[in-house]
């Protein structure tokens, strides 16, 4: 195919036709956005993608700014950066909606008004009418969207990106709402960053001086790496494997909270590294890090630094969204027991997994104990906590990193068992 120049980025005949409006104004706006974005990244071309995960459900926070709740106008403004409403055709790429602002069943428990719930429903239904799968989770790979090794994707979500890049060996940068929406409509994304094989090699070697076994251990290690590496690519030496899928899910989320670790290598565990040497591509590491007991203590102290006391009135499990095994574990710990009446206990999981958990009786066990199983959102994304909540406990390094500054509450971080114990007693025991 002939390449057409647009600055330093070359378009194919098909892409140039899209840019010129052959598929309508919305697709042309999407191509314009991708070209400008690609040139900023230094991309020489675009690459085809058939797997896009974005977040384009809009509610009152957006409609108040725009002065209308019309879903076409909202999508045009906030997803395509268009200066007027444009008719959006069905998506070209397989596309999924990530975690959203509300639980479709338990929106009242979140404190949403009926009007707000209706606005979100209209936006969600509009997306579905355009062909977007409403998975509504930060973990699409848990509910059916499992990209293949080497597949070019365009995913948002800071916890999902390192998972599919590293564990599955798919290829994506951490996209924004606009670039993901543009990829949905065009089936294209700039060929730059982690789409290029040479950019996927490890830069830093990490050696472990302490065992990393439990989900808690992996969360702490992830936060440590993000803290120290920022956006570098580590290869971790000394893990025998296999690694619990929940542990590796929490690890990536933590690393991409304290830093921007979009890709990591663990020989024998992740997709692209059979050895440390292969992960480094035969090069010497830029630097080596050692993970020590003192580092564990520093990370745990930091993640608990917003708490001024031990009384707990809110416990949150499920960031990233809980796997079925996590819901089952919570049910096991709560069975036959009763949550302290002064504590609100919420577990978050994708709605598809909540339905399975219902069939298994785990939701009933949790509710009988006084908790609730919620879906499709979380306190940080939806910006809600129980009324009057002052101090919460969580087993998620990501949630304890984000929720205190977002919602102005204090946080305690520990393993799942410690969080359930706090829910039962109303107090945190380190």
From TrEMBL:
This is Aconitase X. The keyword Ion transport does not apply. It comes from Nocardioides eburneus. Keywords: Iron, Lyase. It holds the Pfam family AcnX. Residues 9-421 form the Phosphomevalonate dehydratase large subunit-like domain. InterPro entries: Acnase/IPM_dHydase_lsu_aba_1/3 (IPR015931), Aconitase_4Fe-4S_dom (IPR036008), PMDh-L-like_dom (IPR007506).
